Amino acid sequence: MGKSKIQVSLIGNPNTGKTSLFNSLTGLHQKVGNYPGITVDKKQGACKLSEGKEAIITDLPGTYSINPTSIDESVALKVLQDTSNSNFPDVLVVVADAENLKRNLLLFTQVQDFGIPTILVINMADQMEKKGISIDFEGLERKLQTKVILISAKKNRGIQNLKVAIENYQSLKSNANFKETAKKIDATYFDRLQEVNPKKSIYELWLGLTQKNVVIAHNEDFSDFSDDVSKLNQYQHKETIYRYQYINSILKDNYTIDRSKGQDLRSFLDKIFTHKIGGYLIFLTILVLIFQSIFNWATIPMDFIDELFGSLSEVIKGTLPEGKLTDLLTDGIIPGIGGVLIFIPQIAILFFLIAVLEESGYMSRVVFLMDKIMRPFGLSGKSVIPLISGTACAIPAVMATRTISSWKERLITILITPFTTCSARLPVYAILIAIIIPSKKVLGIFNLQGLTLLGLYGLGFITALIAAFILHKTLKVKSKSFFVIEMPDYKLPSLKNILFTVLEKTKSFVLEAGKIILPISILLWFLATHGPSSYTKVEEEFNASISEQLTAEELAQQIASLKLEKSYIGIAGKTIEPIVKPLGYDWKIGIGLITSFAAREVFIGTLATIYSIEGVEDEGTIKERMEAEINPKTGGKRFNFATGMSLLIFYAFAMQCMATLAIVQRETKSWRWPLLQLVGMGILAYVSALLVYQLLQ
User: Fold this and answer.
1) 599-618 pLDDT, tens per residue?
2) How far apart are alpha carbons 591 and 597 in whole angstroms?
3) Where are the domains of the chain?
4) Chain CA centroid to CA 27, Å
5) Which of 190, 241, 389, 492 has the fewest CB neighbours in a 10 Å radius?
6) What is the DSSP string of 375-432?
7) Nearest-CA neighbor of 336 among 510, 521, 514, 516?
8) pLDDT in tens, 280-323
9) Quick one: which of 513, 91, 198 has its CA closest to 338?
10) Structure pTM?
């Protein structure tokens, strides 16, 4: 009968289509967690094989070798040798790219030496004819002594054959060849190594010796072997040579590439996209189009969501009886959450367009292109990936630095990544730009608001480079740096993969933001609707001195404003107002700055709650309330051009995110670096916002 739930691990080099295969197998039945004892995201999903049979698919991070050079790559090794883990694989599926089979088979031979049943999946079947590739699958299976499956993950071809092979994994032969390789390297040396623990395979012991910082300790004593580092390096080098000799002997008669038969546009496109001048112009044009789209395409759905939440508050206020619960819902929870959900269209569009660039293979060209620019700043092209990932969220971007082998380069990238404009800043940027920047065309083509948003993203990136240069010159950290990147083929993006990505990241944004915004909205509502004795006496004192010239609506407005000032939150806001006043902010904006330290997007939800409590029923949406807010001293708009620009600059530089600080501490294993970020970025934000306001007012 066998197991009803088969544990399957997907492993492969980056850019082989492993994630596409994972999506094809699992569909929407996915979840994200963490590997036991490892702070790296683990993607898992369920896959129905047949009636009563199911596979639990685990997607391991991409790696070129089982001998890791980065934290991400070490995950595969830890998972494959931790037999106590409940998700230890019954069968391994190694995903290879048809065009780069020789390089991909290095990882396959290493994985096969673990003695775990292994299936080789060759992806991109739809590209083989175009590339002039032919494979003798029967010969390959015979030489590798395993099942070889040809698939096209993008077109969902061959997936059923793979499911059948997974279900029948127990029929696969174990073909561990390292014992023969060890004899070729130094038979005497490896015989001595086997004596350390006769119960273990020689390959396990070899990994325990060479990867002792990664492999889980089993109390083996390698003291007789680990002193001679030069010999270890020499034998590892020989191992790689012998593996490639074995791979060449297998591919010699079973795999051919005839470029004359291919119809490949890759070289032609690479000349265009990586051109020393044209490449940068194309990238800049793409960025302009992305930020134009964020404003132009999102306007209608954003207006719909904004009006929907405004109407929802009115309906609830008209339906439910008056009381604290109704006030909490209509003045606290709904405005707070609605103030963030309105930006889902813009965030989804951003994620969608970035996913298209990644899926097409273009993003790797950007990394290659940017390497020359990044070098003078102490970085490499590999740092571009975290910086681009930072446009979604700084947390996964900081974690993405694990692919950088140089510690100094990685540390600098971690420290500068929060300057990149993340999706949490987008709600703040979007509403302030909409209020202070007119929606008009520049040169008859470009939307001025979209260009302003692009400018803020550019400002963050330029500031990140300047900070990197300063850190590169001041940090006294010894480290070696090298840059290797694989250029994947260009391909038509898979709509299914893109939609999965957009859905997953947008859902993550909403849930993570919601967990913070909901309790903060409730707390703000309470603090804004309660106060000391002076708060409770506002209405009677105001009525005693009321002017008959005020209408009932004006009276309600003034009483609400005065009560808000006398509330607990008003008292706190007035206390900090002297600090933020030079920046052009009042106490309400000051409260927004403090609460947004939990997460930047909370700023809008905070103002939505405060203005909802202060306002009357027909005041409209959060944007309309902000536009209508008056500076009592000048009689002009509170959110004028000077104040709006000051706020934009403040949020461009400030470290307003507790979660990012926590992840930086976890990745650097020190509070020194997150505190440096918090203080340094805070001072830069305050001084920059101060200068902008004072110059523009």
Assistant:
1) 676 777 677 767 765 554 44
2) 10
3) 5-171, 178-257, 500-696
4) 20
5) 492
6) GGGT--GGGHHHHHHTTT-HHHHHHGGGG---HHHHHHHHHHGGGS--TTHHHHHHHH
7) 521
8) 899 888 877 876 776 677 778 877 887 787 788 778 877 888 77
9) 513
10) 0.57
